[in-house]
Write a structure and sequence with these properties.
Length: 329
């Protein structure tokens, strides 16, 4: 067995599991990265995966792999950079185990992430949100489930992973009604629920029944809905709602669009950006600042505070001779 296999196994069992206590989602993402990388490197070097060594994963090989992700697999720059971050993490660990490959490892660690264009935030207006919710056929149990699920998503701003992992016990409708969820990095947070959402969730819980630990939004067999299943439901209702709300047809609507809509509703209501970051479970304000760029009302207010183009501005006159002397230096 080569030097790559042991260090890769130790990276997962010792570094990620024992030392970092990484979440199952992180381990799965890293696992998928190295499945793709090992398969690519194996074909490139003409070796079986277990015969690959660290020298087969030098900087040119990693660069070719990253290009393969974008050109052949059609991955986005965000995905490409996420794969590179996993590779960097492995090589940083390998530097401690194999100092004899220090030069090779440093060249891999020096591969930079790729810059990406900031895309505009897509969000729904109140009318578009109402049209999307109205597209759910509440004459069926599936339609009522989906109506409750989308209403909760658009009010609480939940990620799709947070939405699918909710249990019946996570909806607290007593005093101080809120939804309890576990987000990225296994960070727990509670999000208040509006009276309208409380009524919807109370009705759904009564119909749903089940035990506290059961999935809040189950599939046909009582299992948790998958991410893809939820996205397909959103796509279905988007298509239905677009017929009566033409502005929806021009938008790409996903569960994350509903999350953006929740954030923009708070921003337009004058809620401070730090509170919005807490509401969404953002680790850094940098993520939340994207909503400031999307808010045209804020930009319009800034324009209104500026002088009219072509108007003559009065020159500031120092009130004191000493200040005037300093101004003229």
């Amino acid at each position: 067995m080569s030097d790559l296999a042991p260090v890769l196994q130790e990276f997962f069992t010792r570094r990620l599991v024992s030392q970092r206590d990484a979440s199952p989602a992180t381990i799965a993402a890293y696992r998928d990265t190295f499945r793709l990388l090992i398969g690519f490197a194996s074909a490139r070097a003409g070796k079986t995966p277990s015969a690959l060594g660290l020298t087969d994963l030098d900087a040119p090989a990693i660069t070719a792999f990253l290009q393969h992700l974008q050109d052949d697999r059609g991955n986005s720059v965000r995905t490409r950079n996420a794969r590179l971050a996993a590779i960097h993490s492995l090589f940083a660990y390998a530097a401690l185990r194999h100092p004899e490959h220090g030069a090779l490892i440093q060249r891999v660690l020096a591969i930079p992430g790729k810059r990406r264009d900031r895309t505009d935030v897509t969000y729904l207006t109140p009318d578009e949100t109402d049209a999307l919710l109205a597209a759910c056929d509440q004459g069926t149990r599936t339609g009522r489930r989906d109506h409750a699920m989308l209403a909760l998503a658009v009010q609480a701003g939940l990620r799709v992973s947070e939405l699918t992992s909710l249990t019946c016990a996570d909806i607290r409708i007593q005093t101080g009604p809120h939804v309890h969820c576990t987000g990225k990095g296994r960070k727990e947070r509670d999000t208040p629920l509006l009276p309208a959402t409380v009524r919807i969730m109370k009705a759904w819980l009564a119909e749903r029944g089940g035990q506290p630990g059961d999935p809040l939004f189950p599939g046909p067999s009582g299992q948790r809905l998958s991410r893809d299943a939820v996205e397909r439901r959103v796509k279905l209702y988007h298509q239905r709602a677009s017929a009566g709300c033409p502005s929806l047809a021009a938008k790409h609507v996903t569960v994350h669009t509903l999350r953006h809509s929740a954030a923009m509703r708070l921003l337009l209501a004058g809620v401070d950006i730090t509170v919005i970051a807490l509401w969404l479970g953002h680790e850094s304000l940098t993520s939340t600042q994207a909503y400031l760029h999307a808010d045209m009302q804020q930009k319009q207010k800034a324009i209104e505070k500026t002088a009219t183009p072509g108007s003559r501005q009065k020159r500031y006159q120092p009130p004191d001779p000493l200040l005037e002397f300093l101004e003229n230096l």
